Structures are given as C-alpha cells and as structure tokens.
C-alpha cells in the first residue's frame, strides 16, 4: 500500500495579537498546515475580528475561552489544548502546539507534510527554540514579524534549550503538564528534527537547529514589549537579555512569497469585513442621503516623476513598486503606474496600474505589505511647486523617499519625517481617467466631524467601491478615523492606516 503524505494541524492559544496574527496564519499555511485550531482568550484589541476574517480564507476553527468561569490562565490553556487534541484524533496525523510569537521553520523541505513524511518511527518531535531579537525597532512594524526581525541569538543563550512539540494526537491520553513536553509519549518515540531520539525526557533539550526549529520572537519591537510588560512582571532586564542580535539570518524569508499570497487573501477578507461591519452599524442620520447620490466623477490622471527624472512603475519580476527612467521601463518591461486624483478628494492620490481586471497584482514597496491593488498617498503641496507623497501610519504621516537608482531602478521607502529632494515629486498630467470613474461623495470629507456621517454613507451606498472607502479613510480627520479603526472595527484596518 502506497504511503500517504501526513496531515498537519496546529493549535494556538492567543490573546491580543491584532497586528501580527494575520502574518502568523499566512506563514503556517504557507508551510502546508491543513488546519489551525485557534483559541482566543477574549482579545480586546481586534485579534478576534482579524481571526474571523482569516477563517473565511482558510480552515481555521475558532473558539473563545471563558475567563469568567475559569479565571486561571493555565487551566484555560490546558483545556483548550486538550480539546484540540480530541478534535484532531482520527483526522490529522500531527498536531503542533505554538504561541502567537512562535513560528515553525523547516530548512530542507518546502512543507511540513513533506518534513513529517520521514517520521514513521516517531510519535512526537521536539523542536528547539531559536530566540530572535528586537532589531532596535521601537514601533510596531507593519511588515510581518519574520521579515521585520531577522537577527537571532546563538546557542550560548540557554533559553534556546526549551523545546516545542508536534505529536500524533491519538498518542496523547490527557496527561498534560505544559505545551513543551508531553509525558504520555514514550521517550523512545520522542525524537529531534534530525530523526534521532531525545537524549533525556523533559522540556529542555540539546539545542538543535540543523534541520528545523521554532523561531521565537520574545520581544519584537519596544511597543510590543511594553504591551507584554502590562500582562506579566517582566522588566528592562528582560529586554536586554533577549536583544539577540548576534546572527543575521535571512534564509527563512524563502517562504515569504507563499506567505504573501496567503496574506493577500486575508487582507481582502479584512477589508470586506470592515466595510460590511461599518455599513451595518447603528447611526444617527446626518441627512446626507440624496446629496450627490447617483452622481459620478472622473479623476485626473498623472505620472509621478521623481527628483531623479524617473517615474513610478511596477516591476513584475520582483513584484515591487519602484521608480525608473523611461528607457529602463521599456528595456525591463516595467509597467508604468498612474496617479488618480478625484475632484472630491483633491489631496489624495491613488496609484494604480493601467489595467483594470482580475489579474491586477497587489502593489507593495520593498518594505511594504501587500494590502491592495492600489496605493494611496496624501499629497503635500510644497512651496516650490513640488509635491510630497505622505503615507499614513497610525497618527503619523511619513514622506515617501525615492532612493537613488541602483541598476535599472530604485526603491521607495515611506519612512521620512522631513521632505528633502529625494522625497519631492512632480505630477505630470496625462489626461482624464474615463476608465476610473467612481461615485462622487455626498459630503465634504474634510468637514466630517462625526462617525455617523461615514456609517450613513456606507449604509446607503450598496455598491461602494473599496477604492473609494480607502480614499475617504485616508482623508478623514484623525479623530474620526481613529474612532472607526480602533473602536468600531478594531484590527481590521490597522494594516491600511
């Protein structure tokens, strides 16, 4: 009888990971996980909302704990893990136990099923931690964790001796101590990623990174760390201990393209959920219905020209937004990007490819996240007639820097607080964008002072385009935008604004 490829599931117990949970999910499905069992410990930051959106894209079985009836964290986690084990028996060959700051990595295979195919002689595999540092990042990055933090500790850090386990669920009889080591598993059937047996029973093992390991992002950014301190008695010594910038390792980034494909699906679901939830929210009428409803507007179309006499374009080979000369664009088959400015939103520019079909790729810069098939910038009109392109990150706008071209093109980074020559652009008029007509707005977005105005607009615009929604969110006064994104639909719009 031909041997079948094993099925792999992971159980996650999580709380308040709104910014990173989508990347965690996208990563593990990129590695061939079939199902995630996710137990949310009553998150309050939007994690649950993001999980619900992601569950529309993948086989994610969602559960919520009951902290009122069970106040002890340990018992809530134990009950959750054992429930996942019972649900996996007879359906999955392997079940892994991970936290939201832990990412499994396999060095010599492309999927976890391929990796576990060679473990007929085992009932559990013990993976060493590899602890990653904070890379001196202060604020929570928009980029995924595996891309943001690529420096890790050496084997001299004793904490890396801790292991996390993947096991055959039918072998677990209910004897649970912690998610590291499972005493129901015979030690002779407990092995390391290289296939050899563990040397001794227990949660600490010899550090083994040659075949696979668990990337453990204990600190992440300072913003992450401060949130962690609020939940447990860690201190500044903890931050210093796990700085862990000894070795830079970009090898795990080989899974990023697959991860990004998954991330795109999750982002689509998040945006759709955000609009749907807002449109179904109660509101006090602002009497905007009927004002300009049914009218449309045509944008003016521009090319974006940098200080280097290069133009904003898309590189299909790298799947990145770059800038290049017209000659280089033609030689390398780059695709010119257009800038759309609508009459009702004169200080917002929408960057898009000329094509308008289902094959339009998601646009991202070198350090950006694949969020949407367009980019949105706020336009800063400068005294010298030039423009600055501003990206919104929380409450702060950053100028987009056009880096000096290196070879055929140059990268863009939206991280500058000051506008110098490299941040200045010229908008060259192309014509009217008849292919990009959209509904006009029934209100002046710059005068909006109430969330109810936005909710009423969405509720009474059944065919509201996602483009228009995102443009309005970018243009709203900060107080209104923050109320919407942080309190009405927490988590869902964080990647965008």
Break the fold down into its secondary structure elements and pairings.
Layout (H helix, E strand, L loop, with lengths): L7 E7 L6 H10 L4 E6 L6 H8 L5 E5 L8 H16 L5 E5 L3 E5 L5 H5 L7 E9 L12 H4 L2 E2 L10 E5 L22 E2 L20 E6 L4 H10 L4 H6 L5 E2 L7 H24 L16 E2 L2 E7 L4 E5 L4 E5 L1 H6 L3 E7 L6 E6 L21 E7 L5 E7 L2 E7 L9 E5 L7 E9 L5 E2 L11 H9 L6 H10 L2 H11 L9
Brief synopsis:
With 497 residues, the protein is α+β, with helices and mostly antiparallel strands. 24% of the residues lie in helices and 25% in strands.
Can you describe what's shown?
The protein has 497 residues and is an alpha+beta fold. Helices cover 24% and strands 25% of the residues. α1 (21-30) crosses α8 and α2 packs across α8. It starts with 7 loop residues before the first strand and ends in a 9-residue tail after the last helix.
Descriptive keywords:
alpha+beta, 497 residues, 6-stranded antiparallel barrel, 23 strands, 25% strand
Return the average pLDDT rounded to an integer: 93
Alpha-carbon distance between the two ends: 54 Å
Query: Level of helix content?
Result: 10-25%
Low confidence ranges = none
Radius of gyration based on Cα positions: 25 Å
Main pleated sheet: 9 strands, mixed
Measured by DSSP, the beta-strand proportion falls in: 15-25%
Structural class: alpha+beta
Shape: globular
What's the total count of β strands? 23
Total number of helical segments?
12
